[in-house]
């Protein structure tokens, strides 16, 4: 009798469905879920975090070594950054535009309690130049241990380029890097084998803790954000993949399902990198281009964040009875674009981003606490958005590279 084997996508879908069912059934057993189910999800996520840094570091170095052409690498990096910036600008425009169109139907929320809780929250101030400075490490080990991915990418680029430039003397280092890259790939294979179990154990506590009531009076914000995510995927990524990537949008979305499903359950674009790399390889993206573009995108491409910052700004302004002026809209658009280019690796970084955007448009910073109440639910969609955008860029960059060769 032939043994039935489910694809990774099917296994993850089954895990998601079972997690929702288990979360509903165990709704009054939060202690049990947090003590005996959630820890296994944490273990799986820890394993992914443990492998992501060496994966990004070594895969980018291997990609640079395989290209062996610094002009080609420079062109690829510049094109990818321009692509990410283009989609980010569209994302924040979409978030602001769609939320403004429906603001007449948005509810008004009493922010008294939010103001009280927000006053106890310390929010860091981050300037644009701070983010530029923070891209460059002052220590080799700190970025690796703290998972400061933009700095890890900078380290990888410096070492990869240096290995190419030193010629024969760098041969042992190149061989070691390529060998370790293969070893890391095999360790990743072991970890991915338990992905369905990890997804189940990560998502079940979310369902138990939040439940159907998590939407409550915030249902409009959740629906609006997800409507923007879906619109951006269908109206921006799909045409770009079709026109510049020479790929069927349906095929693209189908092959990306495992990565998108994992991104939804883990809400971590960095942790989803292994899945994104495998999915884009099935779409014809070469490993060197995929590893470079996806790693870069996981750090600087946050279209989901850009959309949500725009949506949340209009939503909270409406709740506070504030009529936004054109100047305030422009301030939100600029601040959201800057803030979305790499979430800062500091405690409370996501709160700082939202606070920075709210402050730029003179929206009460206390509203951060209101948005934080359902941030986990929306963050799942934001992550899917960002991961999909990274993959679309990889597909487009591969086609552009092929057409130039």
Main structural class: mainly alpha
What is the total tally of β strands? 0
Describe the main β-sheet briefly.
none
What portion of the residues fall into strands of 2 or more residues?
A: under 5%
SSE succession: HHHHHHHHHHHHHHHHHHHH
Detailed description of the structure:
By secondary structure, this protein is an all-alpha fold. The protein is 76% helix and 0% strand. The protein is globular and about 65 Å long. Residues 111-124 and 344-349 have low confidence and may be disordered.
Can you give me a brief rundown of this structure?
With 405 residues, the chain is mostly helical. It contains 20 helices and no strands.
Helices, strands, pairings?
Blueprint (H helix, E strand, L loop, with lengths): L7 H18 L4 H7 L1 H30 L2 H32 L10 H7 L9 H6 L7 H6 L2 H17 L5 H22 L2 H16 L8 H26 L4 H7 L1 H10 L6 H10 L4 H14 L2 H17 L6 H15 L8 H12 L6 H6 L2 H30 L1
Helix pairs in contact: 1-10, 1-13, 3-8, 3-9, 3-10, 3-15, 4-11, 4-15, 4-16, 4-17, 4-20, 11-16, 11-20, 13-14, 13-20, 14-15, 14-20, 15-20, 16-17, 16-20, 17-18
Q: Which short descriptors sum up this protein?
A:
20 helices, 0% strand, 405 residues, globular, mainly alpha
